Amino acid sequence: MRVTLASQPAEPGRENEDFAAAAPGAAVLLDGAGVAGGETGCSHGVAWFSSRLGGLLLSTVTTHTARPLPECLADAIRAVRSLHEDSCDLVHRASPTSTVIAVRARGEDLEYLVLGDSTLLLADAWGEATAVTDRRLDEVGKRLRGPVDALPTGSPEHAAALAEYRDALTQLRNKQNGFWIAGPEPRAAEHALTGTVPLASLASVTLLSDGATRLVDRFELTTWKETLAVVGTSGPAELIRRVREVEAGDSEGRRWPRGKAHDDATVLHLALR
């Protein structure tokens, strides 16, 4: 297995709240989330949360290979909670959360788990790509974000509308008819998308945070197959460079309305052949 990784914060000098890592036969990617510029109830911060959860999850899935991935994630969430529940307010409306992708080779299969709006690309030997993405957050967002998308990104009016949108979104976090994401509550792991794919059918596996998938799912300028070709031939950093180039040409979000002009972007590519 050949592993390539690129990760870039939304803006130079800002903390990167994504986390990705690989071990023999396994890999994880997390995209941390909080409230930009606001209180989270956690003194450690979003990057601390996503990196601790990611590291513990990778350790758990590789150590307890017979344990189902949702149970591994629940265990990791409990472990992170125990690290700071005595010092932080974990029932705060904006306590740190994270999307999660985990993959693990087990026998002749690849097991996967996806929770939140990061994307797993499974590529076959002919270069065809199947995307696995949890769209529940997007579906909830579409119902709520009309006022945000009507305003220029970065304007004071946009910032106010975005704050209201995020407040409304947190009310639906980890609830039925809402969306599920890793936070302080282990039961969220039960709602992850899971599956298995024969390893013999796969040429590569790619884990992407939503900041790296914008060319496909936000800007609609390319396809998953073309994205896979860029990553496979030019590397993850080239994909992120192309995302940043397009974002820079629409910094106010007039053509492509979005909450942030730029987002943390991470790509972890596992070439299996």
Would you write up a description of this structure?
The chain is α+β, with helices and mostly antiparallel strands and 273 residues long. The chain is 33% helix and 24% strand. The chain is built from eight helices and ten strands. It has a five-stranded antiparallel beta sheet with strand order 1-10-9-6-7, with helices on one face. Strands 2-3-4-5-8 form a five-stranded antiparallel beta sheet, covered by helices on one side. Helix 1 crosses helix 2 and helix 7 crosses helix 8 (236-248). The longest helix is centred in the first third of the chain and has 18 residues, at 46-63.
Strand content: 15-25%
Give the helix/strand class. Answer: alpha+beta
Basic shape: globular
Approximate helicity band: 25-40%
DSSP strand count: 10
Q: Order of helices and strands, N to C?
A: EEEHHEEEEHHHEEHHHE
Rg over alpha carbons: 18 Å
Report the average pLDDT across residues.
90
Strand order of the largest sheet: 1-10-9-6-7
* Uncertain stretches of 5 or more adjacent residues: none
C-alpha termini separation:
7 Å
- Can you summarize the main beta sheet? 5 strands, antiparallel
Count of alpha/pi helices: 8
